[in-house]
Design brief:
The structure is a homodimer of 548-residue chains. Chain A is an alpha/beta fold. Chain A has four domains: 6-95, no CATH class; 161-337, Aspartate Aminotransferase, domain 2, CATH 3.40.640; 353-406, no CATH class; 418-545, Aspartate Aminotransferase, domain 1, CATH 3.90.1150. The first copy, chain A, is built from 17 helices and twelve strands. Chain A has helices at residues 13-16, 31-52, 65-71, 83-95, 115-127, 138-155, 168-183, 187-190, 209-217, 238-250, 273-283, 301-304, 360-375, 378-383, 416-451, 483-503, 531-545, and strands at 105-106, 161-165, 199-204, 225-228, 254-261, 286-290, 316-319, 332-336, 456-458, 466-471, 507-511, 519-523. In chain A, helix 7 crosses helix 9. Chain A is globular, with a radius of gyration of 26 Å. Residues 341-360 and 368-376 of chain A have low confidence and may be disordered.
Chain lengths: 548, 548
Amino acid sequence: MTSINPDNYKLSDKTANLTAHEIFPFSETAQPETREFLQKVIDILLDYVNACNDRNEKILDFHHPEEMKKLLDLEISENPAPLQQLIVDCATTLKYQVKTGHPHFFNQLSCGLDIVSMAGEWLTATANTNMFTYEIAPVFILMENVVLSKMRQIIGYDGGDSILAPGGSISNLYAFLAARHKMFPGYKEHGPRGLPGDLCMFTSDQCHYSVKSCSSVCGLGTENCVMVPSDESGKMIPSELERLILERKARGQIPFFVNATAGTTVLGAFDPLHEIADICQKYNCWFHVDAAWGGGLLLSKKYRNPRMSGIERSDSVTWNPHKLMGALLQCSSIHFKEDTQQDVTCQMKLPTVALTVKKENERERKLKNKIEIFFQGLLLSCNQMSAEYLFMTDKLYDIGYDTGDKVIQCGRHNDIFKLWLQWRAEGDAGFEARMDRLMELTAYEVKRIKEQSDKFYLIMEPECVNVSFWYIPRRLRGSPHTPAKVVELAKICPIIKARMMQSGTLMVGYQPDDRRPNFFRSIISSAAVTEKDVDFMLNEIDRLGQDL
Amino acid sequence: MTSINPDNYKLSDKTANLTAHEIFPFSETAQPETREFLQKVIDILLDYVNACNDRNEKILDFHHPEEMKKLLDLEISENPAPLQQLIVDCATTLKYQVKTGHPHFFNQLSCGLDIVSMAGEWLTATANTNMFTYEIAPVFILMENVVLSKMRQIIGYDGGDSILAPGGSISNLYAFLAARHKMFPGYKEHGPRGLPGDLCMFTSDQCHYSVKSCSSVCGLGTENCVMVPSDESGKMIPSELERLILERKARGQIPFFVNATAGTTVLGAFDPLHEIADICQKYNCWFHVDAAWGGGLLLSKKYRNPRMSGIERSDSVTWNPHKLMGALLQCSSIHFKEDTQQDVTCQMKLPTVALTVKKENERERKLKNKIEIFFQGLLLSCNQMSAEYLFMTDKLYDIGYDTGDKVIQCGRHNDIFKLWLQWRAEGDAGFEARMDRLMELTAYEVKRIKEQSDKFYLIMEPECVNVSFWYIPRRLRGSPHTPAKVVELAKICPIIKARMMQSGTLMVGYQPDDRRPNFFRSIISSAAVTEKDVDFMLNEIDRLGQDL
C-alpha cells in the first residue's frame, strides 16, 4: 500500500508558513524555499506514480458529490494559504482522484500514465509558452514540424500540413472548416448566401458526436448532418451513403463532406475507407477520416491493414496521440493532404508593408493578399485573420514558421513536447510493439471471455481494443440468449458499475447503443495492463455481480 | 549564471541505458529507476526555474530556424532512445527555449512563471484525467464549480453558469454559440433557413481577432461581423455602434450580438460598457464582454471601476486567468448570466430511459427532451449531443455534475487545478495586491518615460498594463513630433526588436495599429517584474537603439 496520506509531507518550519508572495518570482532571494516547496510537491507526485502502478491500491475512493464536498476544503478565503496548506491540498486532491493510470482502469479511451509523456508535460508547464510564434517557442515549433510531418508520412500523405488541436472534436472542426473553405471559398466572407442549396455532410450513426456538433457550431444545422446507417459490426454501409447523397441531391442540397470513422468510440469499428473514398470521388465530396481513436494502429504493420487501408486517399485525418499512443491529455492532431505552407523553408522575406499608415481595410487587404499569394495555403487562407500585432511581416526571422494565423485559437497550449519526447523514447519500433501488445491483450481478453461463456457473452469480435460483452449472473446462466434475457443483462450493468466504483477495485464502462441496451465496453489502451489484469477484470466483475 | 548545461544531469549507470519500456508502467518492479529518471527531469526544471528568476541570465539564445535545426537533434529514429538521452533532450530544449518567466520579458499578454500555478500544472499532468464526467474527475469538477461560481460573483452575476475553455478564442466562440441558440433556438437544427435576414454581429475595430473569426467559423461570414470605429484611445464609439446597427437593420439584417472589449490587445483600452449595454437593451442584442485580457482587474477595488463598470449587465464574459492573473497557459473561462443547471444540487435521478431498446431517433429525442426539461439550461441545450456512451442517465451519481455535454469538446484538459491552487495561495487579498502592483509598476513606467521625454514618446496614458511608446534615437531628438518623424520612429522598432532578440537581453513587442505605424507595446503582467526591471527595459532599448 502506498496510499497518499496528506500528513506525510512536511515542509521545514521556515518554509511551511511562507506564502506564495514570499517565494519566486515575488522574492528574488527565496531560491532555497522555492526549491523546497516544489520538491515537496514532486515527492507527492512520485508517490502517486507509485500508487498508480501498485495493484494493491484502490483505483478510487468513491463519494457522492455532496459527501465529497464535506470531505474536502475547497473554499478560497480572503487571506493567502501558507505553503504547507498547499502541500496538504495537493496530497488531498490526489487522495480522492481516480487513478486513470492504474492497471485496473479500463474505463476510457484515454487512460494510462505514460512516464515519459508525463515528464514531458512537466517540462511543458515549466516552459509555459504559447505556440503561436517561433519568436517565443522556437524549439517546440520545430518539434511540431518534425512530428507532424512524420505522422503525415505514416498516413500516406506526400507533403500536406497539420496542426495540434485541443482534442479530437476541435480537430474534426478544423477538417470541416478547411473543406468548406476549399470548396466554397466565398463562405468565409459571405456565409451561405448565393449558394444554390443547403450544404450537407455525411457520417455514420456510430460516429463520434463531435461530427454532428460541427454541423451545429458551423451553422449548417444538425438536420444537414446525415447519419448513414451502419451494419451489425458498426461499419458505415457504403451503399447507404450513396443512396443518402443522391436523396439529398434530389432535394437540391449540396453534399460536400463525408466523415469516415477509423475506430468508433463504442464498438471500435472501422468504416470501409476505399469504398467511401470512391463515393467521395464520384460525388466530389471532401473525404475526412476521424481516426482519433484508431489512429495509433497506423503504427503497426500487423494491424494497420485492412483496417485503415485507403486512409491515404483522404483529404484530412484526425488522429489523437492521447488515446492509443498513451500521450497525456491533451494531444490531438489534424492532418491535411493539401499543402499549406509551400515555402516554409524559404528564407525570403515579405516587403515590410506594415510600416506605412493606411486605412485599415486597405492595408489589411493588401497584407492578406500578399500573404495568400506567398503561401497559397489552405489552412492559413481558411483561418487567418491577420492580426498585425502578432503576425507582423517585418520580423527578424522567417514568419513561415509562425503557426498562429492557421488556427482558430490565439493562445495555443504546447501539446507537442510530451509527444516528441515520448516518440524519441519509444522509437518507431517501440510504438509499434506497444500497439501490437495492446491488440494481443485484447485477443487474450476475448479468449478468456469465450472460455468462460457461462459467465460472459461476447457481443462481437473486436477490431480494436474495445471489447463489448455482457456479464451473466448466476441466475441467468445456461438459459438461451433471448431478447428478454438481454434486457435483464442490460439492467445489471449499471449495478455492477456502481459496485465497482464503491469498492474502488475496477473501472469498466458500459453504455447502450442503437442495436442493444446497456453492455460493458472494456478498453485496453494503458501500457500498464497485463494478462493478469485482464483476468482480474473478469474475475472482479464476476465477484461483484454473481448475486444479481 | 545558472544556465542549463545538458552535460550536468547524469543518471546512474544502471538507469542511464534503460528504455521507456523498462520503467513504469511497463515494468512493475522498476520503481527506483522510474523515480530516478523523474527526479533528474525535476532537477533540470528546478534549475530552469532558477534561471528564469536570475537577472544575469539571458532571456533567449536566438537562432534562425535553419540554424536552430542544425543545433538540435530532433529526429525520431527506429529504435528507442535510452533514458539518459531523454534527460539530455529535456535540458537542451530548455537551453534554447525563451524564458517567458524572466523579469525582462515584457513581450506577451501571458507571461511570467507563477510557481504555485506551475506546481498545480505538474499535478494536473500526473493526475492525467478528463474533465467530462464526475466519474473520473470528482475533485476537479467540484473545484471548477467553486472557482467559476466565485468568478461569476465577482463579475456581478447572480447564479449563472461557466466553463473553462482552451483559450479566449474558443471562449468567445462559446458566447457566440449560446447567444445564437438563445435567440434563434431553431438554428441548431435548421441553420439560417427560415430567418428573415442575415444575422450580424458587432465589435470594435480594436477587438481581438477571434471575434471576427467566430463569424467565419460559425458560418455568418466575416462581412456580417461589423467593425465599429473606436476613438483615439481605442474605445468603441457607442454612437457609431448604434448607427451601424440601424444601418444593418435597414438592409434587412438581424443584429443579435455585440462584443465589447474590456482591455484591448494592443492599447489596453476598455469599451464603455454601460453605454453599450443600453444599446444592446434597446435593440435586443446579446451583450458579450471580452475581458480575456482586462478581467484580472475585476479583482481590484481600486482599478475595477470605472474600467469595467457595467460588466454586470452583460449576458456573457470571457476572462482569461492565464493573462493578468498569471495562471499557466492554458486557463480561460467563459461565464453566462443565465443559469444552465438549475438543479445541479438536486440528487434526484432521471428515469433510466437508456435501458430500453428503441430506434435511435426516437430514443434520442426522448432522452434529449427529458434532459432539457430537467435542466432547462442554455449551455447544455446549446451544445449537447447526448452521447449515450458517456452521459448515461442511469449512473451511480447525480449526473448534473457531468460537464461534458455542455461543451463542444469531448476530451477537455483539466485547467482548473492550477487556478484553484493559485487562488488558495493568493487569497482574494493576495490577488488584489498582485493586480494593484502590476498597475503601480505600469504607472512607474509611464513616469520614467515622461521623465526621459527626449528619448521616449508616450503615445497615450494607459488604462491597463499595456504601455505604448516610441523610442527616439539620438539623431531624432529635439525635433518636433511630425508625421514624417513618426515614420522614422516606426522603422526603428523592428530593428531594435531584432537586436533585443540577438542580444538575448530583453523582449518587448511592437506592432502597427489603425492610426499609427509600428510602435512598442510593453506588457507588465509577470509577478517577477520590479521597478529596476522597468528601468532596465528603457535603458536597454536606449543602449540598443541610440546609433539608429
